[in-house]
Amino acid sequence: MMILEMKAVIKPSQFSAIDEAIRTVQFIDHR
Known about the structure:
Blueprint: H1 2-9, H2 12-30
């Protein structure tokens, strides 16, 4: 999955912000 590839590239300091973005995308996608 693209998300897993992104996580591997993202720095730990940015992970929290990206994680929130992923949750938002998943929430919208489920609607």
